[in-house]
Amino acid sequence: MTTTAPDPTAPDPAAALAATAATLVGPPPPFDPELAAALRIINEVIPPGGFSLDAIDAVRQGAALENPSDEALARGGAFVIEERAVPGPAGAPDISLLICRPAGTTTPTAALYHIHGGGMILGTNRTGLNEFLLDMAQELTLTLVSVEYRLAPETPHPGPVEDCYAGLMWTAEHADELGIDPERIVVAGGSAGGGLAAAVALMARDRGGPALYGQMLICPMIDDRNDTPSSIQMAGLGVWDRAANESGWTALLGDARGTDGVSPYAAPARAVDLSGLPPAFIDVGSAETFRDEDVAYATRIWQAGGRAELHVWPGGFHGFDGLAPHTVISQDAKVARLAWLRRLLSQSG
Amino acid sequence: MKDLTIRLDALDPQAGAALRVITYFDDLLAHNAGIQAIVRAAAVLSAGPAALVDEARQVRLRVDEAGRLGEPAAAPDPAWPSVPVGSGGGLLWLEQSGPPRPVDAMVLERAAAAAAAVLDRTRGRRDSVPYDQASTEILLDPASPREARTAALRRLRLPETAQVRAVARADGKALVQLVSAAPDPSARAGVGPAGGVADLPASWAAARLALRLTAEGTPDDPGPRIVHADQSGALMVLAAAVGPATPPIADVVALEHAVRSAPWMAATLDAVATSASVRSAAAALRVHHSTLQERIAHAGRLLGWSVDDPAGRLRLHLALVLRRLHRAASAM
User: Fold this and answer.
1) What are B20-45's pLDDT values in tens digits?
2) Within chain B, which residues score under 50 in pLDDT?
3) Given pLDDT bands bounded at 50, 70 and 90, which one contains residue A4?
4) Does A167 touch chain B (CB under 8 A)?
5) Quick one: what percent of chain B has pLDDT higher than 70?
6) Could you read off the pLDDT of B210-239 as tens digits, one per residue?
7) What pLDDT is recorded for position A2?
8) How far is CA A55 from CA A50, A61, A104, B93, B318, in A?
């Protein structure tokens, strides 16, 4: 297991960085023109500061969180849909896996192990199974497995990430039964789901778990310190700003948020060692809180000798491709993801 | 946060449709969005495909409700709501064949205004064809081979389907103008009739005749600075018949004699010939009504015929036109 090694004599590095960043950052980068127009409407539903934790129940019931039906997921018979209860972490309740298997395949398929987003506090294993993921699974003949993990603040760290890991373990162990090639499982997620996917990849490496084939990290939420230049620069703007991020991390970590002892399995940016990880795909907008932590994560993977592909979409706010899917930049971002996954999978024949 | 679904269209009953449409296009313009983004916004806000075709600016765009770019239909279904874009013959439409919806009119109006602004910014005011004398001459010459005409059209950025006319300017320039363009009001010119690019040689011939009917518009040489061939009727026959070598008839000799007799004479006779009444001629000349009556009587004596009645005024008008045609020969 890899953890940070705090130096008790050093000044608080987070506070020092925040102070430096506050004096050095320029104005926020401009939003992409099409995204700027859509953002005004999006901000009526999702203010930049996110949601108050007090209102979390109402938001979880909200119409904006779409749970596609089995019928919608099946796409007229293209997928066979199954929801399966599997054992959770030791001493914890079962977890539910939503399995979308391409119909009519006779050989094991590669799999996308999907972890939904929602700031650690929202969402289900059906939210985020959007048209894009289904398109990608259909085009590349992938089995989609989407895990239902317990949410913060009711379940703080490590509950959510251990649920995700337990689901991955079960999936790998039951690959034959599911018709999955256990050698070709890619973890994928967006936002909090991206952070959890990165954490699961670290856990699989450290615990000798399934050898993952890749990690697709879509604007991942990976740093509880919340003090990068981009987090300061974008405060009060876009989607999921610094205040919203603080709420999400506080829901997950409580008072431990931002302190030295936070585990990299909660906040992967805390990991000291990023070697030995599966190939990573990371994308993020230039106009969002997570820009700098995500760019740094890719950079550190390269510095550790690993493989990563990084896309920074100019003028993108957090989750732009899902919230404003019609825009050219969203279409291009999806093309880049599909291209990466196709390239990755083609390398194994 | 990325797993939320938010309706962006203006049909959402939760949305104030008008405000949503207006602010959406305003935001796009404020951020310097391109023409594709404008058409895409029309599609997304109306929750259906939208298209923009502006042949003069070589724009052909169709965007479906998911934002995907494609090729527009050759011609829109007449049942679809549509709106002109700018003055260059551009058309924006929504592929909505159901009962009319208020949102469609709103989207079209704002999208058309935004599209016109973006096209002016990004593609220049394509009402004007770039000036290229050699390419223009190829298009105006009936003997030019087809390939040369096609290449000339390309150099002038004109589509094969453009509606155009030839313009012959007094300074010797030959121009091709889009029908939508307003002629330069300051340049003395003859304007040929509108038509397709294949009609340009005929338009050019007519424009050159029309040019000979123009005047400097000065007190010494009064008359129109711009003459449209297709508005000149029988004067075009006169322009074709009277050349530089044609000897002047007696009326023109008398007219020249009268004009030389007083500095106000030419302008006064032109105003009398072309105004609806003596009163309006006096107003145009800024002289008193009774002063003009005296001058008309004086002019009649010099000319040898009265210009106080319709027949005399027609005779005067034709003499003035002939004078221009004789004078034009030396200048053009």
Assistant:
1) 999 999 999 999 999 999 999 999 99
2) 1, 330-332
3) very low
4) no
5) 93
6) 999 999 888 888 999 999 999 999 999 999
7) 44
8) 11, 10, 44, 43, 88
Closest CB from A50, A325, A330 relative to B1: A50
pLDDT at B107: 95
Phi then psi dihedrals of residue B77, to 5 deg: -60, 130
Cross-chain CB nearest to A328 (options B15, B36, B43): B36
Average pLDDT of chain B to the nearest whole number: 87
Which chain A residues are within 8 Å of B1, Cβ to Cβ? 46, 50, 117-119, 122, 191, 239-240, 244, 318-319
User: pLDDT-derived band of residue A19, with 50, 70 and 90 as boundaries?
Assistant: low
Specify the pTM: 0.69
What is the rounded average pLDDT of the residues A205-214? 97
* Residue numbers of A between 319 and 338 with CB closer than 8 Å to B: 319, 321-328, 330-331
Is there a contact between B120 and B127 (Cβ–Cβ < 8 Å)? no
A47 CB contacts (<8 Å, ≥6 apart)? none
The number of C-alpha atoms within 13 Å of A159 and in the hemisphere containing its C-beta is 19
Structure tokens at A317: 């706010």
Q: What value of ipTM does the predicted structure carry?
A: 0.84
- Distance (Å, whole) CA A26 – CA A41: 26
Going from the N-terminus, what domains does chain A have, and what CATH number goes with each?
Answer: 13-346 (3.40.50.1820)
CB contact under 8 A, B3 and A50: no
Contacts within 8 Å (CB) and 24+ apart, A84-91: A86/A166, A86/A167, A86/A170, A86/A174, A87/A166, A87/A170, A88/A162, A88/A163, A88/A166, A89/A159, A89/A162, A89/A163, A89/A165, A89/A166
Contact B163, B195 (CB under 8 A): yes
Express each pLDDT in B49-76 by its tens digit.
Answer: 999 998 878 899 999 999 999 999 888 9
The Cα–Cα gap between B289 and B282 comes to 5
